[in-house]
Design goal:
alpha/beta, 6-stranded mixed β-sheet, ATP binding, ABC-type transporter activity, single chain, ATP hydrolysis activity, 13% strand, elongated, 3-stranded antiparallel β-sheet, ATP-binding
Length: 651
Amino acid sequence: MGSLIHNNGICPEPEPETGGWGIQIVESEFPVMKKTQSGAYLTWEDIGVSVSSSKRSVGNEQILTGVTGYAKPGEIVAIMGPSGCGKSTLLDSLAGRLASNIRHSSGRILINGRKQRLTYGTMSYMAQEQVLTWTLTVKETVYYSAELQLPKLMAKSEKRQRADRIIREMGLQDSINTRIGGWGIKGLSGGQKRRLSICLELLTHPKILLLDEPTSGLDSASSYYVMNQIVKLTHEYQMTVLTAIHQPSSQVFGLFNNLCLLSLGKAVYFGPTFAANQFFAVNGFPCPDLQNPADHYLMTINTDFNEDTVGGKIPVEKVIEVLAESYKSSNIYKKVRCDIATLCGVEGDVIEKKGSLQANFITQCLVLTERSFINMYRDLGYYWLRLGIYIGLGVALGTLFYQIGLGFDSVNARISMLMFVSTFLTLLAIGGFPSFVEEMKVFHLERLNGHYGVGSFVVSHTISSTPYLLVISLIPGAIAYFLVGLQREPRLFIYFSLVVFVSMLLVEGLMMLVASVVPNLLMGIISGAGIVGLMILGAGFFRLPNDLPYFFWKYPLYYISLHRYGLQGLYKNEFKGLMFPQYVGGPPTVDGEMILNSALHIATGVSKWIDLGILFGMAVAYRIILFCSIKATERVRPIIKAFMSKSTHGN
């Protein structure tokens, strides 16, 4: 076999005369780094991250320990290592998105030698988990994102031209009208979804681009072409790019400027990609001939299978310890420290905030409303399935209480029918909770990347859902109303429909609020059903208002129960103006207001429109609480993390 001479001066085969490895130790003459280019110089020193351990005997489990490195404009840093070594955690640390279970984080992260808050347009982060609106096509997804991300002064045609270019560069032009797919509907493949996610992050040509597993699900050819396009854009726009990557091909590996190797949370190597071969060879782990260097590095430091390396003689943990210690004492590490000191010694330009260039509030609301409306229209489980169920229930309710008339028995029938409409029909709004959770996931991701504000999201979701809720309220309500034979006056039917509509709008706001606080699907459904169930119990039907226990049930539940106001409004709307007999077959001598006062404990002096107004006010209040809860979570979460980190560090 002929020897493969690498351009770093290493011949991995033994020399025939000496029997030793033909390794030439070349003193690398790295040039002194100078900050001549404009852009974002990202440095991180001694990054340490720990989480609460699942083992009670152990306090905290260390995820990262003393990781140091840097990234320059126009270059790509590859972060490699076995599964669970801390690649994603390092990217999360650099992006400021550490998980809530992080107990302690340490180290220093600077941009251009300064501690800067990453603002809109400065950084884009493609996380490992794909979060996309599955009902949209590729073109719609990228177009809507372009409308939200790109500067408001840019013409719409220019935004679409950039979107089309990014789609072509990621090789998605043949799937441009294909829906993303999900929930049993075939759409894009996993690799195509990954490329689509990259498209969304490349739209703004950010100063710093973080990619977590951008080539997962792609074949070797697609991986190369995707990464090659990212390299071209990196050079063209002087972006600073870091990517965590699994098992790159030799062609992809050759595209990277610097390499960060992690194992067991420690930096085994950080430095130029071309010098990694020499580093491993010097420490007794030369890359075999014709083998992909990336494969060799990962096989050498992989701890997943507890396999010994180097002929089965040296444990992997020992190999990692040897490499980590050797790296700490190497000239490469000293050069990295020197470069970081150079970058941090002179403070560079402050990365300017681009928030003023974003789409304004009205544009954000319009784009999000259109996108959300299309999503609701195409997702059968969002509203259409509920509409079918509501129509079925409306028919069932109408046939059960068909033409109840004005007899003695019609009083209880009216009360039962109106109670079912105001409580159990609105309870079915919980069925839309899975769709709410998916929408909240997309919102949280886009919110982290600064695409739009919380207010835009809340307003747009309210506007886009209103027509569907109106249809769901009107059609089944009309079926039940006229089959049962309630009062036929148009103004009374309009009030009936308004109460049902506002009640559904209110419950939908409550479910969105629950979805923002409890994003877990099963826990959210249980929590939402429990809250609505309590409000139904305290509405004044199962126990009349005057008979409710004062503690909790009367104060405060009866007064904050949304079903109380809907039920009372429907009672007043139906019973006022009617006369009923006192006994079966008797004359109609009992006034409807008497039934409201004596039998239902409802004060007739309060107008039914006040009940409707309170319902509408509660619907608005729930949306405001949703806005405040999201904002409060964004503000409080960093404070809690900092407190937990300090307390753990103190202990």
